[in-house]
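JOB MANIFEST
job_type = single_chain_structure
chain_count = 1
residues = 325
[input]
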Amino acid sequence: MSLELSQVTVTYDGTRIVKDIELSVASGERFAIMGPSGSGKSTLLRAIAGLAPISSGTVHIDGADVSSVPAHRRRVGLMFQDYALFPHMSVLENVAYGLRMGGVTSAERAEQSRTLLDLVGLGTFADRRPDTLSGGERQRVALARTLAPSPAVVLLDEPLGSLDISLRESLLGETRSILDSLGATSVYVTHDRSEAFAFCDRMAILNEGRVVRLGAPDEIWHNPGSEFVARSIGQTNLVPCRTINAGNRGVCFVPLDAVQVHSEGELKGVVTSTRFEDGSHIVSAVIEPGGGALEMPVPHPMSQGREIRFDVNRDKLILVSGDEI
């Protein structure tokens, strides 16, 4: 089922939180909405679900205008970070809850719920209570419950935010596989760019209620279009282009593997700090002349104030803004 947003605006107390959003999500597509706290991403998700009234614009699901349709009739499944499982119900009863509200018979509820529990790897957990489960297990139950009524669109609002990083990575892959196996159309909201990149086919980056970049992860990575987007996706090693390429104005992202430190390097800088990260020593240096702080990998720690010489592989630079490299 496809999802279309046209000029969607959400206003609270006279302030526009979401502004003129245009988005199109294809049937079966995994879509991510990313942005910092306060960018409007969760409000936009709630507007799609019908939980936040839109001030103007339209929401279409599978071609039908649902802008004025109540949330419980939109065929939208919504999964929150806190999972909101009912503690007094068994795992099976939690998964079956939406089916019961939809008038599905007891036998059908049990069959469909057990099928989904098998799909999320919790087929033997049907009779347990949520408070006996780990965080990852509760996440799987919440996902099964969200999928049980066969929603047209699955909305996930920071669903892994409360989990530790190793569990988050494994469950993200499982969630993606489960949605793909069902052919589900999904929208995943997160502030974490690694989650967004790993989950989606395409993504939108929000800032102050507006979409500032839209595209596939690799497209956005190689052409961020602005410093805000570059920093949002982890391109923090930014320097003025003319510092590295004489005559070029603008800002460039310098990947760590684009820098080679050696005594005969064409460029030079002064070390300001050293840290150890992911198995490598990384120094930060102020480039001379021209300024600009640049990080680069080195074989061993270096003391503050030491001069360092290096070359940059210009073919690996990514233009963030300004002239062509």
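[summary]
The mean pLDDT is 92.
The CA atoms of residues 159 and 221 lie 24 Å apart.
exit_status = 0
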